[in-house]
Specification:
The complex is a heterodimer of chains A (88) and B (267).
Chain A lengths: L3 H6 L5 H18 L3 H16 L10 E7 L2 E7 L11
Chain B lengths: L3 E6 L7 H14 L4 E5 L7 H5 L9 H5 L10 E2 L6 E4 L12 H12 L4 E5 L6 H7 L4 E6 L3 H16 L6 E7 L1 H6 L5 H8 L2 E7 L2 H9 L10 H13 L15 H9 L5
Parallel strand pairs in B: 1-5, 1-6, 2-4, 2-5, 6-7, 7-8
Antiparallel strand pairs in B: 3-4
The structure holds adenosine-5'-triphosphate and magnesium ion (MG).
Pfam families (chain B): CbiA
Protein name (chain B): Septum site-determining protein MinD
Family (chain B): Belongs to the ParA family. MinD subfamily.
């Protein structure tokens, strides 16, 4: 995160924040043994399955691994398209 | 008496496990407790020099395990304190000379006689680490506020949990308040948010650590040093006391505030 002061002065963001943000991602992958590629292909398969039942906007879908204490959770936010008559 | 067995480990090497073990041992013994520390770093022993007891070694941990001496014969008493003992590691052997069940047996023999048994773990996640945590009641993970040390600490915390020795407790060592202030070092809160375990101490980067190690007199024996104070506070927390965390920011330290008031223009 860049502070307003850094933005004004054009300074690089403080390295402590970079360390923390990078570590967040590294730890998620270390703890779950789930690579970025594996996560992406899982997302795609999930979306394919869900789309067979409901109409969704793939662009609006958010599927992420989030840290909750020392546990990781797969958090999915999948908005359903409004007013779409369900196909049978 | 039923000892609490505390293993000090880290994952990454050189973050301050041996320094922490020596200082916690000294601080606990200084508080009137009966303490023995065991150097679990077979082949790379160091706890003896940090404690200043290197000239008194006759037998070591492997001699005990292989039956060349009795446990008592391998225990070196630190004469500076009433009840502090060291069981040194073997220097010319490797970690495979000892098994986790050897460690459990040896520590069980000591439990009845001591208040605290501290075990200095080697770096890494191999046999030496397994040996060190096998008899532990509590595992203390030492890290530095720096990416690779935190990442490796996370691995160790996970392994400690998997071995049902968790939850581990965290010591953040070598905190540099000036760098934190500039935004160039993660602070304790950042590290805790990432690792999500209980903090039991933050130790500042302190030249006194190097000086006291040069002399073989752990910094916890020096009540004026900041690192010594931090280690003493960790020892008290291990005993179950509630001790507020030191304010590591020297500028807001009461003592330096006072000394600046007394020496206007100084600093
Ligand atoms: N708070 C501190 N301030 C300054 N120097 C420190 C501090 N803590 C440790 N050190 C120094 O860092 C070095 C490594 O410390 P130490 O030997 O305790 O680490 P270790 O984790 O036991 O290493 P290893 O993994 O090799 O066993 C030593 O030279 C020590 O004096
Ligand atoms: Mg060491």
């Amino acid at each position: 995160m860049t502070s307003w002061l850094d933005k004004l002065t054009g300074r690089k963001p403080a390295s402590a924040n970079q360390a923390k943000e990078r570590l967040k991602l590294v730890l998620i992958h270390d703890r779950t043994d789930l690579s970025e590629q594996a996560l992406n292909s899982m997302k795609n398969e999930l979306l394919a399955v869900i789309s067979r039942y409901i109409d969704i906007d793939p662009q609006a879908v958010r599927i992420n691994v989030a840290q909750d204490g020392r546990e990781q959770r797969l958090v999915a936010d999948i908005p359903i398209r409004p007013n779409t008559p369900r196909r049978r | 008496m039923a000892a609490t067995v505390v293993t000090i480990s880290s994952g990454k090497g050189g973050v301050g496990k041996t320094t922490t073990t020596a200082n916690l041992a000294v601080a606990l013994a200084n508080g009137g407790l009966k303490v023995v520390c065991i150097d679990g770093d077979i082949g790379l022993r160091n706890l003896d020099v940090v404690l200043g007891l290197e000239n008194r070694i006759v037998y070591d941990l492997v001699d005990v395990v292989e039956g060349r001496c009795r446990l008592r014969q391998a225990m070196i008493r630190d004469k500076r304190l009433p009840e502090l003992y060291l069981i040194p590691a073997a220097q010319t052997r490797d970690k495979s000379a000892v098994t986790p069940s050897d460690m459990v047996r040896l520590v069980d023999e000591l439990r009845g006689e001591f208040d605290f048994i501290l075990i200095d773990s080697p770096a890494g996640i191999e046999r030496g680490f397994r040996n060190a945590i096998a008899p532990a009641d509590v595992v203390v993970v030492v890290t530095n506020p720096e990416v690779s040390a935190v990442r490796d600490a996370d691995r160790i915390i996970g392994l400690v949990e998997a071995e049902e020795k968790g939850p581990a407790r965290l010591v953040i060592n070598r905190m540099n308040p000036g760098m934190v202030k500039r935004g160039d070092m993660m602070d304790a809160e950042d590290v805790l948010e990432l690792l999500a375990i209980e903090l039991i101490g933050v130790v500042p980067e302190d030249e006194n650590v190097v000086v006291s190690t040069n002399r073989g007199q752990p910094v916890a024996l020096d009540p004026k040093s900041r690192a010594g104070k931090a280690f003493t506070n960790i020892a008290r927390r291990l005993r179950g006391e509630q001790v507020p965390f030191l304010d590591l920011d020297e500028k807001s330290d009461l003592f330096s505030k006072l000394s600046r008031m007394l020496r206007p223009g100084g600093d």
